[in-house]
Structure formats: structure tokens, C-alpha cells
Design brief:
About 75% of the residues lie in helices and about 0% in strands. It is mainly alpha-helical and about 160 residues long.
Length: about 160
């Protein structure tokens, strides 16, 4: 099937935007890992820019309902904040911070951002068939996932 040059240019532009978004999330993840807890807490209270949501979505190929669950905010609220150039609230910011720091650990264990994102987005038997990223909604869930990642890091069974 032949596609027009305009359609190919559009597809290429979309691929570039996607890759840039994914890279932005992983830069954010590495940066958050480099901060002290007090610096991270200050950022969480101030709220992260709502534009990080798109980078987060792209990095893990998340659907709206998953974003809503993970960030404890409706898509309409997130969209309104984007339109009004407002930062995320502290709850959504804390969850995004938790996921970013956790993603950095997964990247270290799997030695690749792509592998880390795939592992985090794939249902896991050791976690009751839930994708690890979806357990990051709570601190207890994050501890469960961290336990499995640590076991993988040290070569043990999860």
C-alpha cells in the first residue's frame, strides 16, 4: 500500500514527538533519582508541570483510565490544568515522583529504558497478574514491586 509523502512526513513527525516524549520522561526519572528527599518533597509540594503527563503516558503506553488511577485525577482535571498552565497537585506529583524514582531502579536492573518500561507495563505473575506500574499507585504496592526488582537485581527468585 502506497502512502502519500504528506502521510509519511506526518507519521515521521509523530514518531519523533513520541521518542522525544519518552526521552523526556527518562530524563525526569534520572533527575529525580539524583535529588535528595527534601528536594523531591519541595518539588512535590510545588507540583510538577502538567506536561510531564504526556511524557509519562508515552513512556509506558498508558491509557486514560490507567493515568487516572495512577495519578488520582480525572482526565478532564488534567486537561483543565494543562489549559490553565497549572502544575499538578501534590497527590499526582507525589505519585509521578514515586514512579520516576522507581523507573530509574527498573532501568538499572534491566540495563535498558525500553526493557524497564516493558517489564513495568506487563502483567506479572509474582504480583498477582498486575502490571508493576499499576501497583505504584500506593506505597505498599511500590514496596512489593521493589522487592521483586531487588530480587531480580541480585539474581534471586522473586
Amino acid at each position: 500500500m502506497n502512502t502519500s509523502p504528506a502521510a509519511r512526513r506526518l507519521a515521521k513527525k509523530q514518531d519523533v514527538v513520541r521518542e522525544e516524549g519518552i526521552a523526556a520522561f527518562w530524563r525526569f526519572s534520572a533527575y529525580q533519582q539524583s535529588l535528595t528527599e527534601s528536594e523531591r518533597l519541595h518539588q512535590i509540594k510545588a507540583g510538577f508541570p502538567v506536561d510531564l503527563i504526556q511524557a509519562f503516558r508515552l513512556a509506558f503506553d498508558l491509557q486514560d483510565r490507567h493515568l487516572e488511577m495512577l495519578l488520582h485525577a480525572s482526565m478532564s482535571t488534567l486537561e483543565r490544568r494543562r489549559r490553565e498552565h497549572k502544575n499538578l497537585d501534590p497527590v499526582a506529583s507525589e505519585r509521578l515522583d514515586r514512579i520516576a524514582v522507581f523507573s530509574h531502579l527498573a532501568e538499572r536492573v534491566f540495563e535498558s529504558q525500553v526493557s524497564a518500561a516493558h517489564w513495568m507495563s506487563t502483567p506479572n505473575k509474582a504480583l498477582g497478574g498486575i502490571a508493576p506500574i499499576m501497583l505504584c499507585e500506593t506505597e505498599i504496592g511500590t514496596k512489593q514491586v521493589r522487592r521483586i526488582l531487588r530480587a531480580l537485581e541480585w539474581g534471586g527468585a522473586a
